[in-house]
Amino acid sequence: MTSSYSIEALDKSKHNLKAFDCGKTGMNDFLSRFALKHARLGLSSTWVLASKQPGKMREVIGYYTLASSTVTKSGIPTNQSLPYYPIPVVLLARLAVEQKYQNKGLGAKILVSALRHTVKLTNRGLPAYGLVLDVLDNDALKFYQSFDFFEPFTDNPMRLFAGMDSIRQL
Ligand SMILES: CC(C)(COP(=O)(O)OP(=O)(O)OC[C@H]1O[C@@H](n2cnc3c(N)ncnc32)[C@H](O)[C@@H]1OP(=O)(O)O)[C@@H](O)C(=O)NCCC(=O)NCCS
């Protein structure tokens, strides 16, 4: 299966964005209406797992969106001493898999790609103490809980944190 798909930068001339349906309207709309616009504005970057179909618009199997953000030290599940000013983090703003491809391990594959991408960004100089994401609902929470490197914020169980040390070990 992996040889039939590849992770690529979102490109509306190659990827069929309108056909994507992960079962969550907001996630579908973001991909088809806002992802490219937000990339142009420098707000976020979106990458897709796309089928390799030569000569036609390629099906989007799933996608992830990264952005920069800051968090305050209170709530971060860490024993390290941190300053009181805003702490830079990479935000995993969105991650979704087309409905017909769910429960086949592709969400995990896309998540690992997003985390490796985060490591590359920090290796190139982007400061980030870790990666943060806001969980959409309880199903998504179960998905993220199946990976042992995420910990909930101490003041918000639907906000998860992964430290750069854990991510670098992937
Ligand atoms: C959440 C989502 C990305 C998961 O993608 P997926 O391809 O179905 O997930 P995978 O098949 O890679 O599953 C990886 C692990 O998560 C577990 N998992 C996934 N969804 C689960 C659920 N609803 N309940 C319990 N476990 C779940 C799988 O069992 C698997 O665990 P295992 O490795 O121990 O077997 C996908 O369901 C989706 O796109 N949902 C709609 C959009 C969304 O909610 N995105 C998250 C926003 S925060």
Rounded to an integer in angstroms, the radius of gyration calculated over CA atoms is: 16 Å
CATH topology: Aminopeptidase
CATH level 1 class label: Alpha Beta
What amount of the residues lies in strands?
A: 25-35%
Q: Which structural class do you get from the secondary structure elements?
A: alpha+beta
Q: Distance between the terminal alpha carbons, to the nearest Å? A: 21 Å
Provide structural commentary:
This protein has 170 residues and is of the alpha+beta class. It has one domain: Gcn5-related N-acetyltransferase (GNAT) (Aminopeptidase), CATH 3.40.630. It contains 4 helices and 8 strands, in the order ββαβββαβαββα. Strands 1, 2, 3, 4, 5, 6, 7 and 8 form an 8-stranded mixed β-sheet that branches. It is globular. The model has no long low-confidence stretch (mean pLDDT 95). Bound molecules: coenzyme A. Coenzyme A binds at residues 22-24, 27, 95-97, 102-108, 135-136, 139-140, 142-143, 146.
